[in-house]
């Protein structure tokens, strides 16, 4: 059960006239209704009790680390990527002015749902540890939850009663709310330089091996059954590759190509390449993980998966790889030149998989989104064509929507932030 909210001591003056027992009951009930209404008004209006003295500002990364440490012991977490400074939420924030009745059960639940609605950029970057990453909920159509926000409201803006019954969901959201009541702090231009002052790594003379130049190549080296995978190639310089890599201190040398993949049972495989042979690197093997360094690319992952990877590397003709499931879409897109490319079994209701890729095109970025359409599914082409027709006024230099048999491909050219925003908010892509 959730911790009960401590009621304030409120003394009401009552006339000392004799009252019948029935009248007392009615008065108590009326007072209870008024109190519940007052709590709802206070929470929704944002005029809560006096705030505690403001503490030193904390970052979302720090808040997530605190939640991971406290709630990670309670159960397996959702598959939520690391916190990103330039994150654009899948669900656009809105004012929480209309909430379902089940949200009004107590103040903590009400505050949590209000926060999830108004600050999805926070809860979309925090894992939930209640186990919903394995089973999902009705509002998610049974799909496993991706982050804490899924427990409260789905991508369509429809509320989910899942969190209202769950101490973990509410507890995590309230902890985030108390630490970041106004969402992610906005830094001023002077405080947050747009371009890192550190020099970019010198990648001249470094190249990826022929078996590991794209997402398709990487998927051919890992066994089937993945939920999602992405490939990042630092040499393509689209702008988000570096944040998708393990840090330099992981090996003591810069990784320039990386595949990251996860399976439905929570096991995972990463493939890393540093652009040269005979690199003097340190191993990151542990109790449940292997880090094989005699191959190109290096293998880092769950011990029960690494043997399958080495077998696929030795037998290039082996067709039992993860690539086969995604082949029909990957053959329609330009993942060979993508700096970042991702496939995911999470997709809109009309599709069973999605693809997102970024390709450098001069000073611009070309974005590609693709879906494999389910049999007899209805695709919202009218909506997507409306996005195409309004694309010029929204800052896009080109915009195409093409459907061929059961594959839908959307191609667009603009700056990086515009493409990321379009992918997440208009097409439900999780980058």
What does the overall shape look like?
A: globular
Number of helices: 11
Provide the number of structural domains: 3
Q: How many β-strand stretches?
A: 10
- The radius of gyration is 25 Å
List keywords for this structure.
431 residues; single chain; 3 domains; 16% strand; disordered N terminus; 11 helices; globular; Gyrase A, domain 2; alpha+beta
How would you describe this structure to a colleague?
- With 431 residues, the protein is α+β, with helices and mostly antiparallel strands.
- It has 3 domains: 60-179, no CATH class; 215-325, no CATH class; 346-427, Gyrase A, domain 2 (2-Layer Sandwich), CATH 3.30.1360.
- Helices cover 27% and strands 16% of the residues.
- It contains 11 helices and 10 strands.
- Strands 4-5-3-2-1-6-7-8-10-9 form a 10-stranded antiparallel β-sheet, with helices on both faces.
- A hairpin with a 2-residue loop joins β7 (351-361) and β8.
- 36% of the residues are buried.
- Residues 1-23, 25-31, 45-54 and 188-199 have low confidence and may be disordered.
In short:
By secondary structure, the protein is an alpha+beta fold. Helix content is 27%, strand content 16%.
List the helices and strands and how they pair.
Layout: H1 21-45, H2 60-71, H3 107-118, H4 120-123, H5 132-135, H6 167-179, H7 215-219, E1 226-233, E2 257-263, E3 268-273, E4 289-292, E5 298-302, H8 303-314, H9 323-330, E6 340-344, E7 351-361, E8 364-373, H10 381-389, E9 398-404, E10 407-414, H11 416-427
Antiparallel strand pairs: 1-2, 1-6, 2-3, 3-5, 4-5, 6-7, 7-8, 8-10, 9-10
